[in-house]
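tl;dr need the bound structure. longer version: we got a ligand (FE2/S2 (inorganic) cluster) that a collaborator sent over and nobodys looked at where it sits. i said id run it. heres the input, straight from their email, havent touched it
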Amino acid sequence: MASVDLNLVDEILRTRPPEPRHLLALLQEIQARFRYLPKEAMLAVAGYLDVPLARVFSVAGFYKALSLTPKGERLVTVCQGTACHLRGASGLVGALEKRLGIGLGQTSADGRYGLESVNCLGACALAPVATVDGTVHGHLSPSKALELV
Ligand code: FES
């Protein structure tokens, strides 16, 4: 794994005052910049906010949007809620897993794609649904899903 640019981490930290209430916001910004929370960045956050490292890890582990391992450059999220499940979401997952060579919750070896699932995207009328980098794609078939990656 490449080394972390601590100057960039420092730049992010200085966007907010060193108060513990900014912990989540800072972690979100670091996640957005690095696509994960590098250990060095978590140490820097703990030091900057003067909070225990265990608390930083606790927050990082609680939110699904935060990750301790790098996420793919492009994030594919397949809805597995009831409506999507009934309309073939598992077929989408199977096709995407096979194409990308990864399972749900994993990132491709080249770092280009991450594959995740969600329980409902709030677009049930379009089931089955998936998003790519937050853009919703509905009425998918396995072959249409493969066109997204
Ligand atoms: S169940 Fe898939 S969008 Fe609601």
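gonna send this back to them w/ a short note. The first strand starts at residue 74 and ends at 79.
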